[in-house]
Write a structure and sequence with these properties.
- The complex is a heterodimer of chains A (736) and B (336).
- Chain A is an all-alpha fold.
- In chain A, 60% of the residues lie in helices and 0% in strands.
- In chain A, α8 runs antiparallel to α9, α13 runs antiparallel to α14 and α13 packs parallel to α15.
- The relative contact order of chain A is 0.06.
- Chain B is 33% helix and 27% strand.
- In chain B, the strands form 4 sheets. Chain B has an 8-stranded parallel beta barrel with strand order 1-3-6-7-8-9-10-18, surrounded by 4 helices. Chain B has a 5-stranded antiparallel sheet with strand order 12-11-17-14-13. Chain B has a two-stranded parallel sheet with strand order 2-5.
- The chains are: A mainly alpha (736), B alpha/beta (336).
- The interface between A and B is medium-sized, with 26 and 24 residues.
Chain lengths: 736, 336
C-alpha cells in the first residue's frame, strides 16, 4: 500500500464538490461521529450510547449538566405510587420541584388525618432544607453562588434525619431518609459518617436508583478522604449498575497514581467487576486496545468488549475522512489516528476474530474485515465477511451493516467496473442511496465514498460520463466532447436500469448543460450557437435579469454603481444574446463599426468575472456568488476572467475609430483589459499565490493602452481619465 | 576640593536612590481552589509579599456555545486575609472574535458583577483588576473597547498582561488602554515535541526584548517559576502535564529516562492523575535559576527603567520546591 494509492482513493480530489447526496449535517460540524461506516448501535447496548465515539463529550448529550433535574420525573412517579390517592401527581410534582421551603412548611403544618400524606410532608420539609447545600446550579453569569451557604451547620438537620431514619414506618420512607442523611454528611464535612451510614443499611434496601445515588455519595466520601482506590471501585459499581448515573460515575472516576488503580482492581470481587474498570479506563483514557486485551484475557465473552471495539474502530476510520466534514476537520475535532495505532488495532481485532470465542463472534469478523479493507487488504477483508455470512443475525440492523460493508469491499476491490459488476451492484447501490435519514444507522459516508471511488475507477477506464454521473468534477466540463457525451447519455431513450440509476444521480441535467454551453459560446464570440443553446436551458434561468447595463463601460469599474443606476432597458440572458447578434450583424454590414464594436466589447467585458454582469455566466456548472477569482474553480478561472473577446472588439473599434476622442477611449478601455490580463497572468495564474502576500506587486504598470492614450492629451476623454484614474494620473506625471 | 567632590558624589548617589522606587515582589495564584499551605505562606512571608494576583475565573466562548461564559471560578477554602488581592480574569481570545461591539458594555458589566460578588463574599476589596488575554490584530479593537468599558464601570485601575510579540509589534497589535501592564516573559516558544522549551528560550526572547525600550506602557515583569510536562504520543503533543517535573519521573519505575528531561512510559500507567499509554513520551520543561538570572539581565539591558514590580508565576508548593529559597529575593534585587 503506497501513499499515492491511498491518495487516489481516500482523499477527495481537490475540485469543488457539489455532491448530489447532501450530507445530513447535524449542525455546522457535521455528524458528531465524524466519518463512519461502522454503526455502534448495531451491536452495542444503547444504555452505553453516551460513550460512543464522538467529538462531543458524551454522544448524543454533549456535556452532562442534568444534575439537578435528572431524577425529578422518576421521583414524582415513585412518590405518586406510594401516596396512591392521597395526592394527585400534579400536586406531588409541584411540592417536590416547585414549592418553596415556606410553602412546604405551611403545608406540613396543616392538620391532616392522612398518615401517608403527613409522612410525605414531614419528609419534604427536611428534604427541602437539604437543597440549600445539595443543589449546585451550573455556573453561568446569572447564578448567584454567594447565596449558597458554604458552611452549612447540619448538626440539627442530621439529627432529625437520623431520628426519622430509625423510626420511619416503612422501607420506602426509610430509604429516602437514609439517602438524605448520607448526602448531608457528604456535603457537610462528614465523609466518614456518610460511609458508616451507608454501610449500616446497605443490605436493607433494594439496589434501585436511590441505592445507587447513595452509593455514589459513598464513593464521593472516599474521594474526599483521598482513598482513591475505594472511591474509584465504588464509582465502577455505580457505572455498571445504574443507567442514569453512568455518565456521573464515569466523570467522577479518576485514579491519581498507579497504586490507586492497582488498589481498585484488587477490590474487585470477580472478573466482571474488573472488566468494568478496564472498560472505564479504555473509554476515559483513550486506550481501548489495552482495555480490550485485558478484558479479553479475563473473559472473552464479556459484553464490555463491544463498546471498546466500536470506539476503536470509529476512531480508526476517521482516516477515511475527507472534505465531507471540512469544518470539523479544521477545528481539529477528528484527528486521524497514526498508522501504528491502526496496524496494532487490526492485529488485535483479527487475532480475536480468528479465535472466535467472544460473545458475538460475527461482530469481530465484520470488524476484522472492515479494518483489513481500510488497510487495503481486500482478499483478507472479503474472507472475513464470508466467514461472517452464516452468523450475522437476521435482524434489520446487523443485516444492513453487513450489506453496507460488503458493498464497500466490492467497490474497493474491483479493478474495473464491467457490465457484470454493474448488474451485481445495482440493487445494493439503489438500496444504499435510498436509505432514509437515520441517526441509528450510518450510511452517508458509505454512499458518498462508493460514488467517489466508482467514479475514479470509471475515469481510469475512460468511462467519463459514468464517472461524472456518480461524482461531478468541474474539469469534466472543460472538454466539449465530454459535455456532448453527457448530454447524449442523459437524453438517451430506453436506458438500462443501471443507466437510469446513473442518470438519476447526475448532478447536471441537460438544461444545465445547454445553459453552460450558451455562456461558453457567447464568451467565444459564437453568438448564433449561443442563442440556439440558450433556447434549451431552463426558461427561468434564461430569463435571469442582469443587474446592471452590460453595454456600459466606466473609467473606474464599479459594479454596485452600475447596479444601482437607473436603467431604461433591463437585459435578461436571452436579451443580451439578441443584442450581441444585432451589434455583430451591424458591424459585419459596416454600420457605425466603432460604436457597435465598443458596445459589443463593453458587454463582453461585463459578462466576465471582472464585469457588472457576472450573473450572465452564473449557472450550475460554472458556479455562482464568487466574490473573487479564487472562488471560481481553478479550471474555470481562465475562461471566466479572459479578456480575449473584449480585446478583439476594442481593437476592432480602435481600427474603425475616426476621431481622436474615439481613439482615446478605445485605448483606455484596452488598458483596462490589459490590466485584467496582467492579474490573470500573475496573481491568478497559480494557486500558490492564493495565500501569499501579494502586496509587494506593483499597483499598475505602463499598459500599452496608457502609453497610447498619452498621445491624445488634447481630447476631452483624456482629461476625464486623468480625473478619474489615479493610476493614469501617476503614469502621466512620471512619464512627461 | 577633594571634600567638595566627595559631597557632590554623595549627593548624586542620594538623588538616584530617591528616584529608584523600591520594587515589590508578588505572586500569581492560579489554582481553582484557594488554599495556601505553610510552605507557600512561609515563602510569601520571607519575601515580604503583600499582594497576590489571583485568577478569579476564565471566560471562554467555545465554537458550539451561544455566548461567552465563565469557566472554573475560584473557590476559597481559606480566606485570603493578610494580603492585598488583585483579581485576574483570563479571557480567551476567541471570545473577542465573536463578541459583537454592541454587546461589549453588557459583557463588561457581567464580568464586573461576577468579580464583585466573588470579592464581596470573601471580604476582598481589590485596588486593581487585571485581565489576561492573548489578543491579536483581529480582536484588538473589541478587546480594547472591553477594557475601556470595564474601566468606565470600575473606579479602580485596570491592568493587563502583555506578551513579547505585542511589545515588538505595537503598531499592529496596539497598546491596550490600561494603567499599566505585566510583561509575561514566558510561554515564548512553541508547544511541540522539538528540542526547545516552550516556557523560555533565550534565542526566541532575544528577537523581542530590545523592543522593550520603546514600549510606552509601564510594565511589571512576570517571570516563570513553573515546570510542566508535555505528553508526546506518536510525535505530537497531546496533553499538558501541569506542574510536573523531572524529579517526579526519575524515581518512578513505570518510566524509563531517555535523556535529560525526556521519559518514556514502559506500560500503561497512572501518575498524578494523568494516564500514560505504553510508549508515550514525556518532555519536561522548566526554568532554572540561571534562566531567571539571564532573563533579568536581558530585560535590564533594554528596559530603560520602565519595569515596576516583579511577579512570579505561580505560587505553588511544587514550584517553590524547584528553587533555592533565597532565589526570589535575589531575582528581585537584580531587576533594574
Amino acid at each position: 500500500m503506497t501513499k499515492t494509492f491511498l491518495k487516489r482513493y481516500w482523499l477527495v480530489l481537490t475540485s469543488v464538490i457539489a455532491t448530489v447526496v447532501t450530507l445530513a449535517c447535524a449542525g455546522d460540524y457535521g455528524e458528531e461521529y465524524g466519518t463512519s461506516n461502522f454503526t455502534p448501535q448495531v451491536f452495542v447496548d444503547t444504555a452505553y450510547s453516551p460513550f460512543f465515539y464522538s467529538w462531543q463529550f458524551y454522544y448524543g448529550i454533549g456535556h452532562d449538566e442534568n444534575h439537578i433535574t435528572r431524577f425529578n420525573n422518576a421521583n414524582t412517579r415513585e412518590w405518586s405510587t406510594w401516596l396512591g390517592p392521597s395526592a394527585s401527581q400534579k400536586t406531588i410534582d409541584y411540592l417536590l420541584n416547585t414549592a418553596t421551603n415556606t410553602a412546604v412548611d405551611s403545608a406540613a403544618a396543616t392538620q391532616t388525618a392522612d398518615k401517608k400524606l403527613k409522612n410525605f410532608l414531614d419528609y419534604l420539609r427536611l428534604a427541602k432544607k437539604c437543597e440549600t447545600f445539595s443543589l449546585t446550579p451550573i455556573d453561568h453569569w446569572e447564578v448567584d453562588t454567594t447565596k449558597k451557604n458554604r458552611h452549612f451547620n447540619a448538626t440539627t438537620l442530621n439529627k432529625q434525619l437520623e431520628q426519622h431514619l430509625t423510626s420511619a414506618p416503612d422501607p420506602f420512607l426509610q430509604q429516602r431518609y437514609w439517602f438524605q442523611l448520607i448526602r448531608s454528611q457528604f456535603f457537610n464535612g462528614q465523609p466518614r459518617d456518610a460511609i458508616k451510614t451507608f454501610d449500616a443499611y446497605t443490605s436493607k434496601f433494594p439496589a434501585n436508583t436511590l441505592y445507587y445515588r447513595s452509593l455514589a455519595y459513598k464513593a464521593g466520601a472516599y474521594y474526599k478522604l483521598k482513598n482513591y482506590s475505594q472511591a474509584n471501585y465504588i464509582y465502577s459499581l455505580v457505572y455498571a449498575g445504574c443507567d442514569e448515573l453512568r455518565t456521573v460515575a464515569h466523570y467522577s472516576f479518576h485514579p491519581q497514581e498507579q497504586k490507586d488503580w492497582q488498589g481498585t482492581l484488587a477490590l474487585c470481587r470477580n472478573a466482571n467487576e474488573k472488566a468494568t474498570l478496564w472498560q472505564m479506563l479504555g473509554i476515559f483514557y483513550s486506550d481501548p486496545q489495552r482495555a480490550i486485551k485485558e478484558i479479553y484475557a479475563l473473559d472473552p465473552r464479556s459484553e464490555r468488549l463491544d463498546l471498546l471495539l466500536a470506539r476503536a474502530v470509529n476512531q480508526s476510520e476517521q482516516r477515511f475522512s475527507s472534505f465531507q466534514m471540512p469544518q470539523s476537520r479544521s477545528l481539529g475535532l477528528f484527528p486521524p489516528p497514526p498508522d501504528s495505532n491502526n496496524q496494532n488495532l487490526r492485529a488485535l481485532v483479527t487475532r480475536i476474530a480468528d479465535a472466535g470465542n467472544t460473545g458475538k463472534p460475527w461482530v469481530w469478523l465484520l470488524a476484522a474485515g472492515y479494518l483489513n479493507m481500510l488497510d487495503k487488504h481486500y482478499p483478507a477483508a472479503a474472507s472475513y465477511y464470508k466467514k461472517a455470512e452464516s452468523s450475522v443475525p437476521k435482524d434489520r440492523l446487523p443485516q444492513a451493516q453487513f450489506r453496507l460493508l460488503k458493498i464497500l469491499i466490492t467497490v474497493a476491490a474491483a479493478n474495473t467496473i464491467d457490465a457484470k459488476l454493474e448488474q451485481q451492484l445495482l440493487p445494493d447501490l439503489t438500496w444504499l442511496n435510498g436509505l432514509p435519514d437515520d441517526p441509528g444507522f450510518r450510511h452517508y459516508t458509505a454512499i458518498n465514498w462508493a460514488r467517489e471511488t466508482m467514479a475514479a475507477k470509471y475515469r481510469r477506464a475512460g468511462e467519463k460520463v459514468k464517472a461524472e454521473c456518480l461524482f461531478t468534477q468541474p474539469s469534466f466540463y472543460t472538454s466539449n466532447d465530454n459535455v456532448e457525451a453527457l448530454k447524449t447519455f442523459l437524453a438517451k431513450p430506453n436506458k438500462t436500469p443501471y443507466e437510469d440509476f446513473l442518470a438519476s444521480l447526475s448532478h447536471t441535467k441537460p438544461t444545465d448543460i445547454f445553459e453552460y454551453q450558451a455562456v461558453q459560446y457567447c464568451m467565444n464570440d459564437r453568438i448564433d450557437e449561443a442563442i440556439e443553446a440558450l433556447k434549451h436551458a431552463e426558461p427561468g434561468k434564461a430569463q435571469t435579469t442582469l443587474p446592471g447595463n452590460p453595454f456600459n463601460a466606466r473609467i473606474n469599474d464599479c459594479h454596485d454603481c452600475d447596479h444601482a443606476a437607473r436603467q431604461k432597458i433591463k437585459y435578461s440572458k436571452t436579451d443580451i444574446l439578441k443584442k450581441f447578434k444585432e451589434l455583430k450583424d451591424r458591424i459585419a454590414a459596416g454600420q457605425d463599426v466603432y460604436t457597435n464594436a465598443i458596445l459589443f466589447a463593453n458587454a463582453q467585458y461585463n459578462i466576465t468575472h471582472y464585469g457588472n454582469a457576472r450573473v450572465f455566466y452564473e449557472c450550475l456548472i460554472y458556479g455562482s456568488d464568487q466574490s473573487e477569482p479564487w472562488s471560481i474553480d481553478s479550471v474555470f478561472r481562465a475562461p471566466l476572467t479572459s479578456m480575449a473577446t473584449a480585446i478583439k472588439y476594442y481593437s476592432l473599434a480602435l481600427n474603425a475609430a475616426q476621431t481622436d476622442e474615439q481613439r482615446a477611449k478605445a485605448h483606455y478601455l484596452l488598458a483596462k483589459c490589459q490590466r485584467n490580463e496582467w492579474y490573470n497572468h500573475t496573481v491568478y495564474a497559480s494557486e500558490v499565490n492564493r495565500f501569499k502576500d501579494n502586496d509587494h506587486r506593483p499597483d499598475f504598470s505602463a499598459w500599452a493602452g496608457f502609453k497610447a492614450l498619452k498621445q491624445y492629451s488634447n481630447t476631452k476623454y483624456y482629461s476625464e481619465v486623468l480625473k478619474e484614474c489615479g493610476y493614469f494620473n501617476t503614469y502621466t506625471r512620471k512619464n512627461h | 576640593m577633594k571634600h567638595l567632590r566627595t559631597i557632590f558624589f554623595c549627593c548624586i548617589c542620594l538623588l538616584s536612590a530617591c528616584h529608584q522606587r523600591p520594587k515589590a515582589m508578588s505572586f500569581y495564584y492560579w489554582r481553582t481552589v484557594f488554599s495556601i499551605d505553610s510552605l507557600e505562606s512561609g515563602t510569601l512571608h520571607d519575601n515580604n509579599v503583600r499582594t497576590l494576583y489571583v485568577r478569579y475565573f476564565d471566560v471562554d466562548w467555545p465554537p458550539e456555545a451561544s455566548a461567552a461564559n465563565p469557566v472554573s471560578p475560584i473557590q476559597f477554602t481559606t480566606e485570603p486575609t493578610g494580603y492585598s488581592i488583585v483579581p485576574v480574569i483570563f479571557l480567551r481570545n476567541r471570545v473577542f472574535e465573536k463578541l459583537p461591539a454592541t454587546s461589549i458594555p453588557a459583557f463588561a458589566a457581567q464580568i464586573k458583577d461576577r468579580v464583585d460578588r466573588i470579592s464581596q463574599s470573601h471580604s476582598i476589596r481589590p485596588d486593581e483588576v487585571q485581565f489576561d488575554c492573548d489578543w491579536t490584530q483581529r480582536t484588538k479593537n473589541c478587546y480594547f473597547s472591553f477594557l475601556r468599558a470595564y474601566h468606565d464601570l470600575s473606579a479602580k485601575p485596570v491592568s493587563c498582561t502583555i506578551r513579547l510579540h505585542q511589545v515588538k509589534y505595537p503598531d499592529q497589535t496596539g497598546i491596550p488602554p490600561v494603567d499599566h501592564g505585566v510583561l509575561m516573559y514566558y510561554n515564548i516558544g512553541n508547544i511541540d515535541a522539538g528540542g526547545g522549551s516552550s516556557i523560555y528560550e533565550k534565542s526566541i526572547a532575544n528577537r523581542y526584548t530590545p523592543s522593550l525600550r520603546s514600549y510606552p506602557l509601564s510594565l511589571d515583569l512576570g517571570l516563570p517559576v513553573f515546570s510542566w510536562g508535555l505528553l508526546v504520543r506518536d510525535g505530537k503533543v497531546v496533553q499538558l502535564l501541569d506542574k510536573m517535573n523531572a524529579a517526579l519521573f526519575d524515581g518512578d519505575t513505570c518510566f524509563t529516562r531517555l535523556s535529560p528531561g525526556w521519559y518514556s512510559a514502559k506500560d500503561g500507567c497512572f501518575k498524578s492523575g494523568y494516564y500514560f499509554q505504553q510508549n508515550d513520551n514525556i518532555k519536561i520543561e522548566s526554568v532554572s535559576a540561571d534562566d531567571l538570572r539571564e532573563i533579568v539581565t536581558d530585560v535590564n539591558r533594554h528596559t530603560n527603567h520602565h519595569i515596576r514590580n516583579v511577579l512570579f508565576f505561580d505560587l505553588d508548593r511544587q514550584n517553590i520546591l524547584l528553587y533555592d529559597k533565597d532565589l526570589f529575593k535575589e531575582i528581585l534585587a537584580r531587576t533594574d
